[in-house]
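Hi Y.,

Following your request, here is the sequence exactly as I used it, all 175 residues.
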Amino acid sequence: MSEAILDNTNVKPQPRSAGRTKFIVGGVLLLAAMPYLIVTSIASQQEYFITVDELLAEQDKLTGQNARVSGVVIGDTIFFDGSELTFEIAHVPQSGLEIESEGGLAAVLHEAATSPNANRVTITLYDQPMPDLLQHEAQAIITGQLGEDGVFYADELLLKCPTRYEDAVPAQAEH
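Below is the corresponding structure, written out as tokens. Let me know if you'd prefer a different format.
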């Protein structure tokens, strides 16, 4: 049998610190990226929705842009033909302090839904079933785009049940 002899005289061993340096540099980059990602994520979702008044005030800027708008459903404007749902929402204040100063959420929803002077936006949603919670004075949060025709074309509709506030409406609305 023949024996092989390895000659290691020309091979220089790599220092152990070279691997550690790469690991440390990678770790520092990851640690630096995390705060940046957290801050940009929070900043992009800081405003959960805009109000009807804000949508109308920024109509030129928001036309064709994705947006999330909140308002109260006007019951007598609901129309559903099996494939297209349309209804109007009226402005509801976004500030909790303003809502409380006006008598609470039930009173604010009732006032906005019955006021002929409240700003309104027409909502259109295609190819969705009729939501059970879509009724007069329901609070709605709608995601979609404002069209050039002034209609808000919805992709997603979230409704908060108004019956939760019904008991408080008569007493609060009297004030």
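The CA atoms of residues 73 and 89 lie 5 Å apart.

Thanks again,
Q.
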